[in-house]
Design goal:
The complex is a heterodimer of chains A (243) and B (333).
Chain A: E1 3-12, E2 15-25, E3 30-34, H1 41-48, E4 56-61, E5 64-65, H2 71-77, E6 79-81, H3 94-102, H4 109-123, H5 138-150, E7 156-160, H6 168-183, E8 187-191, H7 195-201, E9 204-209, E10 212-217, H8 219-224, H9 226-233, H10 235-242
Helix pairs in contact in A: 3-4, 3-5, 4-5
Chain B: H1 11-29, H2 32-57, H3 65-83, H4 87-110, H5 115-135, H6 137-140, E1 146-147, H7 164-186, H8 188-198, H9 200-205, H10 210-236, E2 238-239, H11 241-244, H12 247-260, H13 267-286, H14 293-308, H15 314-327
Antiparallel strand pairs in B: 1-2
Classes of the chains: A alpha/beta (243), B mainly alpha (333).
Chain lengths: 243, 333
């Protein structure tokens, strides 16, 4: 097991954002994390990457507990993430944005630059490496976000709604990118609202509602799970798949 | 800024070189008063360059750099006064080390805070140092200030009867400050500082230890500022807590870099080369008319710069410089 989460809890005031969560990710897997808005998906990411410290629980990565480590230390261990709202270094070029990630593995400027160029080509931004991040389209900013994270050579990559608002063609490109990342040997956990996409990509899907895991399993099982339909997919969805 | 002297036949090579030679021979014909202004220009370019590392690249608005400056100045003067220790050791080594230690304490306390709160907390550090040196009268002579013991012409004690040696030291310091800034800017640390400045949370997530990067920047800045303090004490021969630890000085360091252009090698130099002569000339021309008129004019100038060139003058001056280079003869190889 690459990542093991045990009895994770996080409370914000009166709100139990994550409630006794247990789950894991095997090496090479794509784990989908779905659930209604406010279900605690992004909080789970923030807990894994050290942005928040859990109230209780254990997060084991490659067998070692990483609770209490700072975000940069967790990155050095091999976990990186993207943000739901892209957070590029706005006044830097695309290349320098990605170099910042590459510097986590080398202090050599030339090496970092080569690595960054390679990753930019990989995500399809090779032609825009000298464009300032703030001048990129919203979609390219998300690509840049993925590239910056990939440049840190993660074993585990957490993608937070990378595909929200994409048109079908862009969505297909994103799906192919995710597959290519997985084929490089990177394990992924994805928060996604585009249910069709997550069902096609992930063998294992986790459904959260009010911070609690209400279902876990293969796409087929999730799709027909009563709790999931009630909390998230909705009656509309049931009718749609029946037709 | 690319310092590649690949060709002296190209304006990019020979213009900076000509300017450097001009700076080197300047003391030979410049009258004393103007030489003094030139020294303050070079000197403020240096200390502002030091401020720029933490304030510009890392974007941490320090309003307490005078604390480091004062330690360099008092280290030099007090240790010569009590133990005859030359300012090289008393000011640069011991004063510089004290400034680095203070920068570590400052970092520990102030880096927990962000933006305005960081600025206010550094301001407090500077004020605390000023009050300590003001009140420890038995050792520091308090508000009376202290004059450095006279040693005549002496390289060991960094005292010279003419202004020219001070000028060359100030020039060397400025070039050193530019070189260090340029080196940092190109390195991983420089990239990290800019990233932290733009989005600290995003930087942390991709492996940037922001606390450490900012601490290194602050400590380098502190040390260089202390060296500036030593130079100031040796040049003026007299220091007092209200000036060398003063908020006015801290603001001046920041202001020069901001007007010139933060986070660039040339920004502080341009800022100092424009603001110091502006300060001196408004003082010389208007200082004797009505009280404070020169400060009003100087203040108006600052407002104009901040209004019309909020990103600093460096881009604008750089553009003019490029156009000037276009006009010059060149031989392409």
């Amino acid at each position: 097991m690459l990542l093991e989460v045990q009895n994770l809890n996080k409370r914000f005031g009166g709100l139990q954002a994550v409630n006794n969560l247990v789950f894991g990710a095997e090496e090479g897997e794509i784990v989908g994390l779905i659930g209604p808005n406010g279900a605690g998906k992004t909080t789970v990411f923030n807990l894994i990457t050290g942005v928040y410290i859990p109230d209780s629980g254990v997060i084991r990565f490659q067998g070692k507990n990483i609770v209490g480590l700072k975000p940069y230390q967790i990155c050095m261990k091999g976990i990186c993430r993207t943000f739901q709202i892209a957070q590029p270094f706005r006044e830097m070029t695309a290349l320098r944005n990605v170099m910042t990630g590459a510097f986590s593995r080398t202090a050599d400027v030339e090496k970092a630059k080569r690595k960054a160029e390679e990753v930019l080509d990989f995500v399809g931004l090779g032609g825009k490496k000298d464009v300032l991040a703030r001048e990129l389209t919203a979609i390219d900013q998300r690509r840049l976000e993925v590239a910056r994270a990939l440049a840190t050579n993660p074993h585990l990559l957490l993608l937070d709604e990378t595909m929200a608002g994409l048109n079908p063609k862009e969505c297909d490109e994103a799906v192919s990118l995710v597959n290519r990342i997985r084929n490089k040997g990177v394990t992924l956990i994805m928060v996604e609202h585009v249910v069709k996409v997550i069902m096609s990509l992930s063998k294992k899907i986790l459904v959260l509602d009010y911070g609690t895991k209400i279902a876990e399993g293969k796409a087929e099982d999730i799709r027909s799970n009563e709790n999931v339909i009630k909390a998230y997919l909705g009656e509309e969805y049931r009718r749609a798949i029946r037709q | 800024m690319q310092i590649s002297v690949k060709s002296f036949t190209h304006p990019k090579g020979y213009v900076p070189l000509t300017f450097l030679i001009f700076l080197l021979i300047l003391p030979l014909f410049l009258p004393t008063y103007f030489l003094h202004i030139a020294i303050t220009m070079l000197f403020f370019a240096f200390v502002s360059e030091a401020w720029n590392i933490i304030g510009g690249y890392a974007g941490q608005l320090s309003l307490g750099n005078a604390a480091f400056f004062g330690l360099g100045a008092y280290g030099a003067v007090l240790l010569t006064h009590y133990y005859n220790i030359p300012p090289w050791i008393g000011g640069i080594v011991i004063g510089g080390a004290a400034a680095v230690v203070l920068s570590l304490i400052t970092g520990l306390v102030c880096f927990r805070l962000r933006s305005h709160y960081f600025a206010i907390s550094t301001l407090a550090i500077g004020e605390v140092m000023r009050l300590v040196f003001l009140n420890q009268r038995q050792i520091t002579f308090g508000a009376e200030g202290i004059t450095i013991p006279y040693k005549g012409n002496s390289i060991l004690y960094l005292q010279f009867l003419s202004k020219a040696p001070y000028y060359y030291i100030a020039l060397a310091l400025m070039l050193l400050g530019m070189y260090i800034t340029w080196k940092i800017g190109k390195s991983r640390l420089g990239h990290y500082l800019v990233a932290i400045n733009q989005n600290q949370d995003a930087a942390e997530v991709v492996g940037v230890n922001s606390a450490r990067a900012k601490q290194i920047a602050l400590s380098v800045s502190a040390f260089l500022t202390a060296v500036g303090g030593t130079f100031y004490a040796q040049y003026i021969y007299f220091i007092d807590p209200d000036f060398v630890f003063g908020l006015g000085l801290s603001i001046e360091f920041a202001l020069i870099a901001i007007v010139g252009g933060v986070g660039t090698v040339m920004g502080p130099v341009i800022g100092s080369f424009l603001l110091r002569p502006a300060m001196e000339s408004t003082n010389a021309l208007l200082g004797a008319t009505y009280m404070g008129v020169h400060l009003i004019v100087y203040g108006g100038l600052l407002i104009a710069v901040v209004m019309f060139k909020p990103e600093g003058l460096v881009g604008w001056v750089g553009g003019l410089y490029e156009r000037f280079l276009e006009l010059l003869p060149r031989k392409e190889n």
